[in-house]
Amino acid sequence: MMLLPRFLYGAVADFFATELAKDIKQVELNTQGSIVLSLAAKWCSSPYSPFDKTTLLYEDIACRFFPRDSDSNSDNDYVDRVREQLRHEVLVPLQSSLNSKSPKKNMPPHAEHLPHKIVQHLGTGQGMQQAPSQTERPCEVGRYG
Length: 145
Description:
globular; UCP015417_vWA; mainly alpha; about 0% strand; DUF2828; DUF2828 domain-containing protein; single chain
């Protein structure tokens, strides 16, 4: 019964460690300006979040990303070192790369997915009359009475 949750836990940790390794390699090799990064750095567990205190997923990702050296003093020293190393060497650079990729700083991130923007990208022209009216005053339609 405990085999499946442990398998899923290990698979999630492996997935994040693999994707973070791919992303940091792309950032390091990037000489131009166009790179495609996964969102693993964005969705990776935070080191001191309540979720991580329960699951210790961040610790496991860090240990998989930076395998143990044979000259390590103790478990606590190794875990603390790789947690900080993952944060400083991997997550901070990747998160700053992800934040710098957004070209429209003053636009909310979901603005590209508004109904009238989606209809414009369809290229068919159907539904163009309805899109502005749906987004102009959405609160008027569902007023209190």
